[in-house]
Amino acid sequence: MSISKDLTDTIRIQREIADKVKFENNHKDIIYICGIDVAYRNNVAYCSAVLINKNSMDVVESYNTTSYVKHPYVSGFLMLREADPIINILKFCLASYVGVTIDRPTVGVAKSHKM
Question: What SS3 class is residue 49?
């Protein structure tokens, strides 16, 4: 499969997921917040998740995983690279992609704003 075919499929998938994202602010009863990030070194992804009580800010649980990178970095398609480690650590969310995939509310925070 050629790279352009892969990129075309990725763009299609990204648009399908974007169409499923809901922008709502009706989650007043949220008690727990989970923050997740992935760091890379060579061909290894290090993913950490921390679950906190939003009222007390106490850490409830934290998890760390290590996995091999399945997809190379492609600007604008970070979901491909980061979704596997994030979904793997959440077996107990880039947020919109993961939220749609696991059918849970998510909030995404990025290092920069790029459309």
Answer: strand
Query: By residue range, what is the domain housing residue 37?
Result: 3-102
**44 — pLDDT class (breaks 50, 70, 90):** very high
Give just the sign of the alpha carbon dihedral 5, 98, 77, 71.
Answer: negative
Picking from 60, 70, 75, 74, the residue whose alpha carbon sits closest to that of residue 86 is 70
Count of alpha carbons within 13 angstroms of residue 76, beta-carbon side: 8
Position 47 in a domain:
yes
CB atoms within 10 A of CB 115: 3
Q: What is the CATH number of the domain that holds 61?
A: 3.30.2170.10
For the segment 49-75, what is each residue's pLDDT rounded down to a tens digit?
Answer: 888 888 899 988 888 999 998 888 888
* Beta bridge pairs of residue 41: 44
Residue linked to tokens 């399908």: 16
Beta carbons of 94 and 108 less than 8 angstroms apart: yes
